Amino acid sequence: MKRRLGQSGRVGIAVVTGLLSLGVLSAPASPPLFQITIESGSPYFLPASATVAAGAPIRWDNPTASYHTATHDNCVLGGPCMFDSGSVAPNGNYTLPGLPPGRYPYHCTLHPIMRGTLIIVDQAPAPAQT
Fold first, then answer.
1. In whole angstroms, what is the distance from residue 75 CA to residue 72 CA?
2. Which residues pair with 45 in a beta bridge?
3. Long-range contacts (CB closer than 8 Å, 24 or more residues apart) made by 119-125
4. What is the pTM (predicted TM-score) of this model?
5. Which residues sit opposite 71 in a β-bridge?
6. CB 61: neighbour CB atoms within 10 A?
7. Side by side, which strands form the sheet with 92-96?
8. Which CATH superfamily includes the segment(s) 34-121?
């Protein structure tokens, strides 16, 4: 069943839209993109441990000459697989739209020595990263 907005509903939407466009009200800001660089040497994923706000997009950049992956450990352990980039080509990247709060260890399936951890938190993280 469709429900139509009455005159007051349309006026309310128009007022909110107008206030947003004038900057009187602000729309909730989406968290900024968080970047991780894939390295040829240790620690391999830079930062190796990253604290990121829930819902923030996360991008892995691969400036190396080799293919790599960013694969959540659960994808191979039989748990819920939250992300798997597949092969990321040299000079390519992979972007994950965001994750819910939690701890997400991950690795490169092509080079198992390459490991990283995402720590997803409700609030914006402090600037310190390792």
1. 6
2. 38
3. 119/49, 119/50, 119/51, 119/52, 120/51, 120/52, 120/53, 120/54, 121/51, 121/52, 121/53, 121/54, 122/53, 122/54, 123/53, 124/31, 124/53, 125/51, 125/52, 125/53
4. 0.73
5. 84, 107
6. 16
7. 45-46, 34-38, 58-62, 92-96
8. Cupredoxins -  blue copper proteins (2.60.40.420)
Decide if 29 contacts 5 (C-beta within 8 A). no
Q: Which single residue is written with the structure tokens 């409700």?
A: 122
* Contact assessment for residue 83 and residue 69, using Cβ atoms and an 8 Å cutoff: no
Q: Which two tokens stand for residue 113?
A: 């020595």
**pLDDT by residue (tens digit) across 26-45?**
556 778 999 999 999 999 99
pLDDT band at 20 (very low <50, low <70, confident <90, very high): very low
Length of the chain: 130
Where are the domains positioned within the chain? 34-121
Q: Which two tokens stand for residue 71?
A: 């694969």
